[in-house]
Design goal:
The protein is an alpha+beta fold. Helices cover 61% and strands 14% of the residues. It has a two-stranded antiparallel sheet. Strands 3-4 form a two-stranded antiparallel sheet. A hairpin with a 5-residue loop joins strand 3 and strand 4 (87-91).
Length: 98
């Protein structure tokens, strides 16, 4: 269920950004939650998928990935590598409790 929601919401947001059309604001506000749960896009955890897009040769795709990271982090989620090397997202409040 998480993967289906992640794929549906993030794919729509992604396509709006790639095509330079206005993204729906409620989907933009949902990006931190999507990053937090880190559901799968095409079989890959969302944060790892975004990281892969940062390396893409197409500049429009790279810019969309940068915008995604910016929106995720702007609303209180911090991205970092876990002990196994995977990219994780944690709310700032959650990190303060560690």
């Amino acid at each position: 269920m998480i993967d289906r929601i992640t794929t549906a919401a993030f794919s729509f947001w992604w396509e709006c950004n790639i095509n330079h059309t206005a993204a729906v604001s409620h989907l933009t506000r949902a990006l931190p939650a999507l990053g937090q749960v880190n559901g799968h896009m095409n079989g890959t955890p969302l944060l790892q998928w975004i990281q892969q897009q940062l390396q893409h040769r197409n500049a429009d795709i790279q810019r969309a990935a940068v915008r995604a990271v910016g929106q995720i982090m702007a609303q209180g989620v911090r991205l970092f590598r876990g002990s196994g090397g995977e990219v994780e997202g944690k709310w700032v409040e959650e990190l303060a409790k560690l």
